[in-house]
Design a protein that fits this description.
single chain, TIM Barrel, globular, binds flavin mononucleotide
Length: 492
């Protein structure tokens, strides 16, 4: 049996579960058995859902953004009352008043919460404090640059969030583009989030090298989630084409933050301009007013104009059409993912390798190519870290801004190499964490790129045409960014 589930159905499911989906090193770090993580959804991911996911063998994360200490304490106690499995707490430093954030962090430390997941702007001091207290810190990011920053600040693991995600969306890249870039740039384990709705989605990100899949919308659509029934029914009826990104729901958050939601009166403009005029109260939660245009989504504990609140949904919503217990959703996903991975493993090389190398390519040639790709990836990763450290320690904002295109181009190059490695059925090496790279002057960065270019030129003809073209584009973007840097800031 997997864990001590409370729901009788969950226990049945858990008993039927075959551990077909292998644990990853990230599972060991998080203390779970399955590479399936519940997104720390504010309001929605409360004790009942978190305990159900952890009891099943995944990692449940309580969504505690801006929540008062008493509620966090109560929810943590309830999780512990339901399961003895590890779990996490999600906090958003930049969306929380400083004093409250400080006491939330103190409380997580006092309560010995095993894992804390952070999101949005990277707060190095918070990561430091949590780490020093022995808490595993996971940081969700929207770009490879942020992943490098979270890693440098001490995060033990990264969640790469694709633009398909429900709720607040940090970056703008599709998951299957962002994930290889992040995998290529950082040494710590990486999980994937955004639009993952079924076993095939999860199998695809695991096959690419993610060490866990993070599920938001798919687990919001469960009996245990704290979302209001009105929200759940809208999700059941929704199609992917309905879902949209908007900045309309902004009260309580740093400005210009996009959220992915279902359409409603607010997104249709029927409630007026979100950024001007008086605040209107549209609902209530245990005495707390809920304002129009706020980031609150309808919860079981709320009353009022629920339809006018933020109806968060990820792009995977169109492929889920029922509300089921979390264990049932996870069981379907775990089985589907395992089946997808078996299919990839059993497929003849032409099928398992999306890159079409000449049919007669021999195993040995694949191994040799993989070795060269690995070496180049290690060198590109080191270059990305050097650019990142130059960015991090840059004395002026102008240099930081000018370094960003180079960082983005570096990340693209790393992403191409990760996908090339996967095309010869090799996962990028798990790297031992390295000492921080030293920042470099622009001319030193340019010299390093020159040497890398020569290695690329030798490899590009051996990649399939589409990947080689992407590699060339990434190299051109690196060269352009360096030229512009040298031109704009010749002394840097
Ligand atoms: C209802 C909802 C609320 C969310 N709230 C938070 C939050 O409070 N903190 C956070 O880090 N992420 C939050 N997210 C984003 C998730 O961490 C994750 O990136 C997202 O759910 C993944 O995409 P998916 O919903 O398509 O699975 C939320 C997502 C949803 C759907």
């Amino acid at each position: 049996m997997i864990g001590a589930g409370n729901h009788p159905f969950e226990e049945d499911i858990a008993m039927a579960h075959t551990p077909a989906l292998a644990a990853t090193p990230l599972c060991d770090l998080l203390g779970c058995r399955l590479p399936l993580v519940l997104a720390g959804m504010g309001g929605v991911a409360r004790a009942e859902l978190v305990a159900a996911v952890s009891a099943f063998g995944g990692l449940g994360i309580l969504g505690m953004v801006r929540e008062p200490l008493a509620l966090i304490e109560r929810e943590v106690a309830q999780v512990r009352g339901r399961t003895d499995r590890p779990f996490g707490v999600n906090l958003i430093p930049s969306g929380t008043a400083r004093a409250l954030l400080r006491s939330q962090v103190d409380l997580c430390i006092d309560l010995r919460v095993p894992v804390v997941e952070l999101f949005w702007d990277i707060d190095e001091a918070v990561i430091d404090r949590l780490r020093a207290a022995g808490i595993v810190v996971v940081h969700q990011v929207g770009t490879a640059q942020e992943a490098l920053h979270a890693q440098a600040a001490g995060a033990h693991a990264i969640i790469a969030q694709g633009v398909e995600a429900g709720g607040h969306v940090r970056g703008r890249q599709p998951l299957m583009q962002l994930l290889p870039e992040v995998l290529g740039c950082v040494d710590v384990p990486v999980a994937a989030a955004g639009g993952l709705a079924d076993g095939r989605d999860v199998g695809r990100v695991l096959a690419l090298g993610a060490q866990a899949a993070v599920l938001g919308t798919a687990l919001m659509m469960t009996t245990e989630s704290f979302a209001h029934e009105v929200h759940k029914q809208r999700l059941v009826q929704a199609r992917a084409a309905d879902v949209l990104l908007t900045e309309d729901f902004h009260v309580n958050w740093p400005p210009l933050a996009a959220v992915r939601v279902l359409p409603n009166a607010v997104t249709r403009g029927e409630r007026g301009d979100p950024f001007t005029g008086e605040r209107q109260v549209i609902g209530e939660e245990e005495g707390r007013p809920i304002y129009c245009f706020s980031t609150d989504s309808p919860l079981r504990s709320m009353t009022g104009e629920l339809e006018a609140m933020a109806l968060y949904a990820g792009l995977g919503v169109g492929r889920i059409d029922d509300i089921v217990p979390a264990a049932e959703r996870l069981e379907r996903i775990a089985q589907g993912a395992a089946a997808h991975l078996r299919l990839l493993a059993d497929a003849p090389p032409a099928l398992s390798s999306p890159v079409c190398y000449a049919a007669q390519v021999q195993q040995g040639e694949h191994a040799a190519l993989a070795g060269e790709l690995r070496r180049l990836l290690a060198a590109e990763r080191a270059a990305a870290r050097a650019v990142f450290e130059t960015w991090r320690q840059a004395p002026e904002v102008r240099l930081r801004q000018r370094l960003q295109p180079l960082l983005a181009a570096q990340a693209r190059a790393c992403g191409v190499l990760v996908r090339a490695l996967r095309s010869v059925d090799v996962l990028p090496d798990a790297q031992a964490p390295r000492r921080p790279a030293a920042p470099g002057r622009v001319d030193a960065l340019a010299q390093a790129r020159h040497a890398l270019r020569a290695q690329w030129e030798a490899l590009l003809p051996r990649l399939d045409a589409a990947l080689a073209a992407e590699g060339r584009q990434a190299l051109a973007a690196c060269a352009l960014a360096l030229d512009e840097l040298a031109h704009d800031l010749p002394q840097a």
